[in-house]
Amino acid sequence: MTTAAASAPTAAIPSRDPAWRARLGWAVVALVLLWPLLQATEFEPWVLVEPANLRVSAQFLASFVPPAHDRDFLALVARETWRTIAIATAGVTLALLVAAPLALIATRVLSVSAIGSADGRMAALPALARRGARWLLIALRSIPELVWALVFVRVVGLGPTAGVLAIALTYGGMLGKVYAEILESGDTHASTTLLRNGAGRLQAFFHGLLPTSAAELTSYTVYRWECAIRSSVVLGFVGAGGLGQQLEQSMKMFAGGEVATILIVFVVLVALADRVSAGLRRALG
Amino acid sequence: MQLVLDAVAARHPAARAGARAALGPLELRVAAGEQLAVIGPSGAGKTTLLQTMACALRPAQGALRIDGADPWSLPRRALHALRGRLFLAPQVPPLPPRQRVVTAVLAGRLPALGLAASLRSLFYPSDIPAAHAALDRFDLADKLFERVDRLSGGERQRVGLARALLAPARLWLVDEPLSALDPTRAQQAVSTLVDAAREGSRTLVASLHQVDIALAHFPRIVGLRDGRIAFDLPAAEVTRAQLARLYAQHEDEWLGGGAADADAEAPPAPAPPAVMHCR
User: Fold this and answer.
1) pLDDT digits over A142-176, tens only?
2) How many CA atoms does the CB half-sphere of B225 hold within 13 Å?
3) Nearest CA distance, B278 vs chain A (angstrom)
C-alpha cells in the first residue's frame, strides 16, 4: 500500500469530496419533504407585498401613531390590565395547588422505598403512584388552555372565571412536570442524607430539597406567571375577559391607536415580570 | 445498639452489572456501646461498609442483623423507623448552602418530630438551646444563626457532626469526619464525638484516614482493604507491619496522615479536599 502511494502519488489525489453526492441527495430529500408542508400551510408570502394588501397594512400600522391616550380609554385599559394581572395571578396560584402535590409524588429522589435497592428501584405501589402522577400531569398540560377556556366559557359563562380555570389546569400540568425535573436535577445530597437518616418524604423535601432548589423553582414560577399574562390575552379573544377582550374589540374596529396602547402595556407587564424574577432570584440565590 | 454482619457483600448502586462487589463478603460484630474505627486506603470500601450498616444500602449477599433482627425483612415503615435510630454522617456535609446553621443542625431531630413540628421549626427553630449546646461542643456556638454558605469547609464538616448530637440515634456511623479539618481541630472533633457517644452509651463506628488519631482515640481498629477485613484488633495490638501491609502501594495516605511519629502536633498534612472517594 505504501509503495503504491509512493510510486503514483498523483493517482491518489481525489478529484472530489466523496461526501458530496450524499449531501446533495439529502438536500434534495429535505426540499421534497418540505414542499408538501408549505403547501399544507398555504405558505404564500408574496400576498404580503401585493399592492392592495400593502396599502391596508400600511394604513393599519400608520393608525398606531399616536397611541390612544384619552382619559376614558386609559382608565379602561388600567382596569382591564388589573383584571389581566388578576387572572394570571389567580390562575398560577391555583396551578400551584395542582402542581405542587403532583410534583412531590412524581419526584423519584424523595422515594423512601428506593433507598438501598441495588438499582434505585421503588416498591411496586409507590412506583405506580409516581407513574399515575406523571400521566395526570401529561393529560393536564397536553390540552391547550384555549380549549379549556372554550369549555369553561360554556360552563361558567363569559368572563374571567373561565380564564382562571383554564390557566390553572394547563399550567398545573406544566409547573408540575418542570418542578419534578428541577427537584430531580438539583443537588440531592442533603435530602438523600436526611432520608437515609430516617426523615420522612415531606421532611426531606422541606429541610433538604426545597432550600437547595428554591431559587430555580421561584424563577420558573415567575416565568410561568409571565406566560400566563400573555396567555390570558389569547383567552380574552374567546371571551375570558381582561386586556385580551379589549384588544380583540379594538382590532375589530381597526382602532390602531388603541391596539398600540394595549401592546405597550403588554411590553411593560413582561418587563415587570422580568424584574420581579431577577429580584427574587437575587434574594433567594 | 448491636450489629452483626454475616458474610455480607455489597456493591455500589451505580456499579456495572458484572463488576466485583465493593465490599465483602465479610464478618463483623459490633457490640452495643462499642467504639471502633475503620481504616484503610482509598477505595477499600469504608463508605460502602458504613452505608450497609446504616441500612442505606441493601447487602447483595449475606445478612445484616441489628439487635438480632434482619432490617431488610422488616416492613418498609418499620425499616424506615429503624433508620431514624441510626445516624449516618456522610463525608461531604449534607447541608443546603442557603440554610441557617441552626436549622441544619436541628434537622438531625427530624425522625423524632412530626411533620407539623418539623415545618414549624423552619419558621421558628424548635430547640435553640439544644442546637447551641451541640454547636458549642464543636466550638461553633457563635455560628448558630450564620448561613451555611458563609462557613468554611472545616466549619461545615463540624456542623454536620453537631447534627449527630441531636439525632435520636443509638448508633453513629461517621464517614471520614476529619477530612476537612486541621490536625488540632481534628483531635478536638474526634474527642468530642467519642465522649458524646460514650455519654449517651451510643455505639460509634467511624471511618478514618488519620491512622494516628484512630489509634489514639478508638479502642478497636478494623483494617479494610479491597473490601475485605485485613485485621480487627484492639488499638494497642496494631503493629507497624500490619499498617504497612494495609496501606501497601498507598503509603502516602498512611504516612501523610502523620502516623510515622504518633505525634499529635505533626506537621499538618494538606487536608484532603472534601470529595467522596469511595461512594
Assistant:
1) 999 889 988 988 898 888 888 899 999 999 999 99
2) 15
3) 15
